[in-house]
Amino acid sequence: MTAATPPSEVPTLVDLRTWSALETAHQERVDAATVGHRLRRSLGVPHPIEDFLFSYYSTKPAQLRRWHPGVGVRLEGAALLDRASWKHYRVVGDAVEVDVGSFVAARGRAVDFIRRLLSSTASRPARLGCFGLHEWAMVYRAREGDVRHEQVPLRLTQGETDEVVERHQITCSHFDAFRFFTPDALSRNAIQPSRESQVELEQPGCLHAGMDVYKWATKLTPLVPSDLTMDCFDLAMEIRLLDMQASPYDLAAYDVEPVRIETAAGKAAYVGRQRAFAERSNVLRERLLTVLEPLAIPVDQV
């Protein structure tokens, strides 16, 4: 059994001139968003903030640059173009469209997991009391040479950094942040997240869960339209900035001012931006769910 675009939905036919313009506009948007990263990569110069979405996540600029119209759109005149051979596309006459059945047959389990994760995360209230201490826990009592971003100094001494951790209750709910805690920090977390508990624990106030909305959009390519993927990318980049501003690292060399979460004013500034990111990430989750909800997932793929 395979899934397909619901028969009640007639694909939207887009003429070659129109979709070519959309494709060009998308490529220009990606080029502008990635120009710094691409230049630094050619020079071998790392950046602790702006490189994160390309080092931590698997999608590279060239892949991001590929424009996808999303489910239910048929591209007129594309049958003789390279797009006809792209994975999870199919030819219909002289047109090309996303082959939903092919994607679901190959990635049904992933689609089901992502749908459950996005839905459950969006349904929960945002918890806003973590203050970004996950980054501090990643360097807690770290020995020389063990700090994750070795090219960036700490803005406090190691002892002062450890003291900040010890004065607070860490409440990180995100497994992919928690797994980078130092051994001494693991037991200080009020929650012990695991991959198995991810769907039950993730909540929209978590900065890493907000960044991960971009990851899920890329995992669902080409079902997801590229404008949505780039909206997720843009938000993830903004979140990453706050993530590092609130970290224990000294980013003065990158003209980045810290959010001093060890102070009351810093906590208030962090929470205000965290709340706004939670709201924006939920809007993107709902947009992704709108893409996924009509898809029939075969029982043997779940």
Could you please describe the fold and organization of this structure?
This protein has 302 residues and is mainly alpha-helical. Strands 1-2-4-3 form a four-stranded mixed β-sheet. The model is unreliable at 1-8 (pLDDT under 50). Helices cover 49% and strands 5% of the residues. The protein has helices spanning 16-43, 52-55, 61-64, 100-123, 133-137, 158-167, 175-178, 183-186, 198-201, 207-219, 226-245, 264-292, and strands spanning 12-14, 73-75, 89-92, 95-98. The protein is built from twelve helices and four strands, in the order E-H-H-H-E-E-E-H-H-H-H-H-H-H-H-H.
The chain-level structural class is: mainly alpha
Number of strands: 4
Average the pLDDT over all residues and give the rounded result: 93
Write down the domain tally: 1
Uncertain runs: 1-8
Q: Regarding quaternary structure, how should these chains be classified? A: single chain
Distance between the termini: 13 Å
The helix/strand order is EHHHEEEHHHHHHHHH
Q: Within the largest sheet, what's the order of strands? A: 1-2-4-3
Radius of gyration: 21 Å
Proportion of residues in helical segments:
40-55%
Strand proportion: under 5%
- General shape: globular
Give the secondary structure arrangement, pairings included.
Layout: E1 12-14, H1 16-43, H2 52-55, H3 61-64, E2 73-75, E3 89-92, E4 95-98, H4 100-123, H5 133-137, H6 158-167, H7 175-178, H8 183-186, H9 198-201, H10 207-219, H11 226-245, H12 264-292
